[in-house]
Design goal:
Layout: E1 4-6, E2 9-11, E3 13-16, E4 23-27, H1 39-47, E5 51-55, H2 74-82, H3 93-106, E6 112-117, H4 119-130, E7 135-141, H5 152-160, H6 168-182, H7 191-204, H8 208-220, H9 225-228, E8 235-240, H10 248-257, E9 262-266, H11 278-293
Parallel strand pairs: 4-5, 4-6, 6-7, 7-8, 8-9
Antiparallel strand pairs: 1-2, 3-5
């Protein structure tokens, strides 16, 4: 479908399934595009009787880029956040939660079941905190209720990678290397599928500076645990036991923060949703919706 105007910007949106079915809105993670919600997973979710909505977050994909804003000095942003000083950023996770609410407005949807992965889980948490009337249920996956904690060596490997190669092949290579680094050891890598995904992402939109601004928004956000403790929304937290980018204890902390939240740990899953995990993930989302209805 064409772009929608939401929260004062243009946001690229795709929908799957019957619009009369219960709405599930998917919020993607740092630097990733709506196409990283794999068609196969989206189609299976729609086949379970859901109207599935996916969109490009601001500053990635085909949604509005914020290139009038400066490229953040990540070292300065990190240091200020560590010392409890709010860094100056182009936008916040609250702004991105407002974007999500704006997408629902543009589609004429009062409230939806909200599923967010990684940074998308943080945005989903902000949405539930600041727009509770828009959230029927909350599924936060491979995410954290505050500053994420992960493997230092993995983080350094990701930071040392060339983020903006000047060739198509180089950009595809960055995508593939990222997929390999964040994968867990419990599932085989589907190299053909990942190559197809990395190629599609590189050809569709390449905007690494937007990823930096999104990262700055993560670092500038407050600890959400106190606010999550006040939620009254059915919640499921999904995390992989082999996630080294955002450690499983971050998922446990999220589940502990939200009253009545259920924690689903998927053995061997890293910072990813490989096809072998789909049955458990889809069942968890379906069970959450059913729990909401009851």
């Amino acid at each position: 479908m064409p772009q929608v105007e939401a929260n004062g910007i243009s946001i690229e949106v795709e929908t799957t399934g019957d619009p009369t079915d219960p709405a599930v809105i998917l919020i993607m993670g740092l630097g990733f595009q709506l196409i990283h919600w794999t068609d196969g997973l989206v189609n299976q979710l729609a086949a379970r009787g859901f109207h599935v909505i996916r969109f490009d977050n601001r500053d990635v994909g085909l949604s509005t880029w914020f290139d009038d804003e400066p490229d953040p000095n990540m070292a300065t942003v990190w240091l200020r956040s560590k010392f409890g000083i709010r860094p100056k950023v182009a936008y916040t996770l609250s702004d991105m939660a407002d974007d999500t609410a704006g997408v629902l407005d543009a589609l004429g949807i009062e409230a939806a079941h909200v599923v967010g992965v990684s940074m998308g889980g943080m945005i989903a948490q902000r949405l539930a905190i600041e727009h509770p009337d828009r959230v029927l249920s909350l599924c936060s996956s491979m995410s954290s209720p505050g500053q994420p904690v992960g493997s230092v060596s993995l983080t350094m490997k990701l930071m040392r990678m060339e983020q903006d190669p000047d060739s198509r092949e180089g950009r595809i290579g960055v995508g593939m290397e990222t997929f390999r680094l964040i994968a867990g050891n419990g599932f085989d890598l589907d190299e053909d599928h990942l190559l197809e995904m990395a190629t599609a992402a590189a050809d569709r939109a390449w905007h690494p500076v937007g990823t930096n601004r999104q990262m700055a928004a993560i670092m500038a956000d407050d600890d959400r645990v106190p606010a999550l403790a006040g939620l009254n929304v059915p919640t499921t937290v999904i995390h992989g036991t082999d996630d080294r980018l955002i450690l499983p204890k971050c998922g446990r902390r999220t589940a502990d923060a939200v009253p009545g939240a259920e924690l689903v740990l998927i053995d061997g899953m890293g910072h990813e949703w490989p096809e072998g995990t789909w049955p458990q993930i889809l069942n968890s989302i379906t069970d959450l919706v059913e729990r909401t209805a009851s």
